[in-house]
Write a structure and sequence with these properties.
By secondary structure, the protein is α/β, with parallel strands linked by helices. It contains 10 helices and 14 strands. Strands 9-10-11-8-7-6-5-4-3-12-13-14 form a 12-stranded mixed β-sheet. Strands 1-2 form a two-stranded antiparallel ribbon. The two termini are 25 Å apart.
């Protein structure tokens, strides 16, 4: 079992398989992109599986596959098939922009990997195009509907961006949660945008997001959530789905944090607002033994910040990072 220095149980790994993405969302990176890692510096499928197996042995029970865009990795399904052989691993899920997922939907369903977090920051095509700097809305929306129709448990992640997509908040609730058993989660914007701009406060925090939604509906009921949930969840009377709000910039859920991140290049990140504390790639490549890897993981969680604010104080230059490089 993995227990950090604040007596928090760590059983959830966010594992990035690539830093590359085929969208250029303006809150994530500059229009020209970022300096992506050389392919030789990315963990191989064998290394990703070996690391996963080690960490499951240490107590990880949930693995979320992230990126970049995970399906940019052409051998991703090989990893997913192998992860399904780990008996102690209780859940595998994926975060994706859904541009490339269509051909994999049947096998994902067969494998039982049916929990999908889908990034969608607009329900109007013109807004989507402006934010992502690409014209992929039709593909993303059709794949979203296919996932729902095939029985996947879909959560839509919508980052609330001042002066960009506020007008899409109510329409996405109406278009999705009214008709489908899907959860739309509204996230506060975070400053991990590859250095394209900086900020110390946000206008649309969790309270303002809720107030805005509540001003449009009379009957909203708060739902019970897991202790480790980062979102506060609600259902509008008569609607099939739900919506949630994630205070990702306010950071008021740190006390129950149960997660650890490993980037596609092997950096261990104990908090989104923390500088990478360890790198496992060279150890995985240099040592056939698992103990050195296990020790590095234990060392990382034994020095975790109490919360995101302490992590930020202890870190340097974290806001030059892009979400795509730190395993969003």
């Amino acid at each position: 079992m993995l227990i950090d220095n604040h007596i928090r149980k760590i059983d959830y790994l966010r594992l990035a398989v690539t830093d590359r993405c085929n969208l250029r969302c303006n809150y994530c990176m500059p229009a020209e992109g970022i300096n992506f890692a050389d392919s030789k510096d990315l963990l191989s499928i064998d290394e990703l599986f070996r690391l996963s197996k080690i960490m499951v042995g240490q107590g990880i029970r949930k693995i979320r596959i992230t990126g970049g865009e995970p399906f940019m990795r052409k051998d991703l399904m090989k990893l997913l098939r192998r992860l399904k052989t780990l008996d102690e691993l209780e859940e595998i899920s994926i975060t994706t922009n859904a541009t490339l997922i269509e051909k994999h939907i049947p096998e994902l369903k067969t494998l039982g990997i049916t929990r999908i977090n889908l990034s969608l920051d607009a329900i109007e095509e013109s807004t989507f195009n402006k934010i992502t700097r690409r014209e992929q809305f039709g593909t993303v929306y059709q794949n979203l509907l296919k996932l729902i129709q095939k029985g996947f448990e879909v959560k839509v992640n919508f980052i609330v961006l001042d002066n960009q997509n506020i007008h899409d908040i109510i329409p996405i609730i109406e278009r999705l949660t009214k008709h489908y058993r899907v959860s739309v989660r509204f996230l506060e914007e975070m400053p991990f945008n590859g250095g394209s701009r900086s900020f110390q406060k946000i206008k649309w925090n969790h309270s303002k997001i809720y107030e805005y939604i509540a001003s449009h509906y009379d009957d909203i009921r708060k739902l019970e959530s897991e202790k480790t949930s980062t979102s506060v969840n609600y259902r509008i009377k008569g609607y099939k789905g739900s919506f949630g709000i994630i205070p990702s910039f306010t950071r008021n859920f740190c006390g129950s944090c149960n997660r650890l991140r490993v980037t596609a290049t092997g950096d261990v990140i104990t908090c989104l607002y923390a500088t990478a504390s360890k790198n496992l790639r060279d150890i995985l490549r240099d040592s056939p033994e698992d103990i050195p890897v296990e020790n590095e993981i234990l060392a990382a969680i034994s020095n975790r910040a109490k919360n995101g604010f302490e992590a930020e104080e202890r870190s340097t230059d974290i806001y030059s990072n892009s979400m795509t490089s730190i395993g969003g």
